[in-house]
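User: Look at the shape:
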Amino acid sequence: MKLILFDLDGTLLDTLQDLGDSCNAILEQYGYPTHPLVAYKKFVGNGVQKLIERALPEEARTVETITVLLAAFKTYYEQKPVSHTRPYTGIIPLLQELKSLGYLISVASNKYHEAVIPLMAEYFPDISFDLVLGHRTGRPAKPDPDIVFDSIQTLGVSKQDCFYVGDSSVDMDTANNAGVTAIGVTWGFREESELRQHGAQHIIHHPQELLEIL
């Protein structure tokens, strides 16, 4: 293996409370029902537009409403004064060791790219990622393999030399659609059973277990 691709939300960073708090704030602002934090474990994973869509009542899921709330969400999320986001326990040492061993490390996230960059700068200032990609306007979101293909082409490796590490069915489907090895993590937002059902080739319960697979 040469390249380890990571999902971001639920894999490297625990962002659930900030995502849930931000979405609830916007729902409340526009007069829609809010949700308990645990519900957001199922709402996230397919990008922020899909998050807004899932959080809205079914009868309110119009293009116009989603567009308005999406813009409001991005503004609120980016300016939120109190952050509960943190790297998961063991992630920083894992990334440091991967770099010391000579692996390429990269992020391929469905979070919109403009939000990914400041999060990486804030929470991983001492980690030299070789590439960081969030969802970019006009490009397909995961589980489409576009972001994986873009990453491996940019970094000059083959898909046979790549692991994709994530916490959800979206990530496992992305890895399998791209033809790279799918590694599911159980410390994120989804259950182990979901990861296995969607083709995880390995399951790990702590970041250091990734080194054992390598």
About this structure: The mean pLDDT is 96. The CA atoms of residues 47 and 96 lie 28 Å apart. The two ends are 7 Å apart (CA to CA).
